[in-house]
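ESCALATION

Customer reports they have been waiting on this structure for their group meeting. Please prioritize. Original submission:
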Amino acid sequence: MVNILMIEDDAEFALLLSTFLAKYNFQVTNFEDPYLGLSSGVDQYDLLILDLTLPNMDGLEVCKEVVSKYDIPIIISSARSDLSDKILGLQLGADDYLPKPYDPQEMYARIISLLRRYKKVNEHIEPTHVLSLDEKKEEIKLHGELIDFTPAEYVVLRLLIKNRNTTVSKEQILYDSEVFEYGTDGSLAVIVNRLRKKLGTEVNIKTVRGVGYRLAT
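Update from on-call: job pushed to the front of the queue and completed.
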């Protein structure tokens, strides 16, 4: 699950966006007060969505504070249309600037793109019962035995392992890697079926109708 910190004083807008992103297993925690947001443990989140017009503290100052202390991607979400705000926000270290109003689907796409760019290579092997994932080597083993996967099979299974016991949407899988830049639901279904054949009955990749897939462990 992706954990998102949001600092936005428009509670109705924050609820709308949070509800939309929840469909894709994104957990959004919003703070209307920027000071509370900054003291909430910023480094525990995967991404920050930041408004600029905030009570008691300007969003650009919040951006500057976060960049100076944390390594977290930042998307500025603001109704302020002044070009200088956008330029300054990006110069301060924000990664993207999305002017309001916008379609929540666009925010979702930008989050996926940004997280992909920020993806770090893990140095450890992450076990998931009979499966083990080594992201540094881009290897997945079954009972300690290396299995040969195509690039597309690898990125799908990697995402399912990292989100085990959680439903991963088809859109999230398709957006997660350049491998699926031109992918479709149909091609994804073919890849999942190939994974099931390679992994056998010990690994249960469940289809969640109308949503996506879940690795049940």
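Sent to customer with the following note: Residues 170 and 189 are 9 Å apart (CA to CA).
Escalation resolved.
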